[in-house]
Structures are given as structure tokens and as C-alpha cells.
């Protein structure tokens, strides 16, 4: 019988998905509701809805890149991102890493799009005082002081709609 080989898998795929999860957790940490596209299917890797207290209610579509090319997106994908932005009236960004620090590129379909830090992006576009990438990682992955999340245990507001 052949034994199943335990390989490491594609390291580039793992690197990319781990950054997608990092970006999603950064948004969760700042009270966004998120959906991650399985296996990077679709236009955006992570779709986020801002919290009610944000100054902007536009949905956030993030196409995450964690490559040596930094913020490079191929021309076909750039066109799809621009069409998505116009069709769904959402804010499309490209989070990418440079020297282990995250940056956000606005209008990623343009080669010279505006680049800023995630905390500046959150402040400028959603009015949220966000933690820096380094502080967020320290708080999120800390075992000494984990962030406790509470599940909603209340009853539905309208009982008639819940009956089957």
C-alpha cells in the first residue's frame, strides 16, 4: 500500500491565505463583519461591512497580496476590481505587506494608487481610531491577555417570524 505523503503544500498559497486571515482578523478586531472567499474565488479575498458607528457605510472589498512584488496586481485582475467598485458601489482596497508591515493601497486598479497604513485608512475612510498593525498583532495573538468575545444569547426580537 502506498502511504499518503505528508508534504508542506504550496508555501506561496499558505503565505497568501495566512495574510488574508490576518487582514480579516484586523477588520474583526475593529468591529467589521467579514466574509472570506474560499480559495480566493471571486474578485475580492475578504469582504467587510463596517460597524454601525463608522462614519462611512460603504462595504470594503480587499484583494490581499503578500508577494515579493508588493502591491502588483496583473492587468486582468485590475480591470475586474475597477468593474466591481463601479457595479457594487463599494470601497476596493489592496492590503499588502512590505518589510513585515501592512499597507493599504486605494484604487488598486491604478498603478499609482494612494498607499497608507491600515490605521490611517480606518481613520480617514471610516472614522475609526484603529490600532497600528504591530499593536493589533500583539493584542490579538497575546496568550496572557486574550480578547474575549461574547456570543449573543438573547431571544429574537420578533417571536412570530421565528415560528415554523
Q: Based on Cα principal axes, name the global outline.
A: globular
Rg over CA atoms, rounded to whole Å, is 18 Å
- Count of helical regions: 5
CATH class assignment: Alpha Beta
The helix content, as a percent range, equals 25-40%
Order of neighbouring strands in the sheet with most strands: 1-2-3-4-5-6
Cα end-to-end separation: 52 Å
Structural class: alpha+beta
Order of helices and strands: HEEEHEEEHHH
Describe the largest sheet. 6 strands, mixed
Kindly estimate the percentage of residues that lie in beta strands according to DSSP. Answer: 15-25%
The parts where pLDDT drops under 50 for at least 5 residues are: none
Q: Please tally the β strands and state the result.
A: 6
Domain tally = 1
CATH topology label: Trna Endonuclease, Chain: A, domain 1
Rounded mean pLDDT score:
80
Known CATH architecture? 3-Layer(aba) Sandwich
Features:
6 strands; 33% helix; 5 helices; alpha+beta; 6-stranded mixed β-sheet; Trna Endonuclease, Chain: A, domain 1; 164 residues
Overview of this protein structure:
There is one protein chain. The chain has 164 residues and is an alpha+beta fold. Helices cover 33% and strands 16% of the residues. The protein has a 6-stranded mixed β-sheet with strand order 1-2-3-4-5-6, with helices on both faces. The protein has 5 helices and 6 strands, in the order H-E-E-E-H-E-E-E-H-H-H. It has helices at residues 11-29, 75-88, 118-126, 133-140, 159-162; strands at residues 33-36, 46-49, 60-62, 91-98, 101-106, 115-116. The protein has a single domain, classed as Trna Endonuclease, Chain: A, domain 1 (3-Layer(aba) Sandwich), CATH 3.40.1350.10.
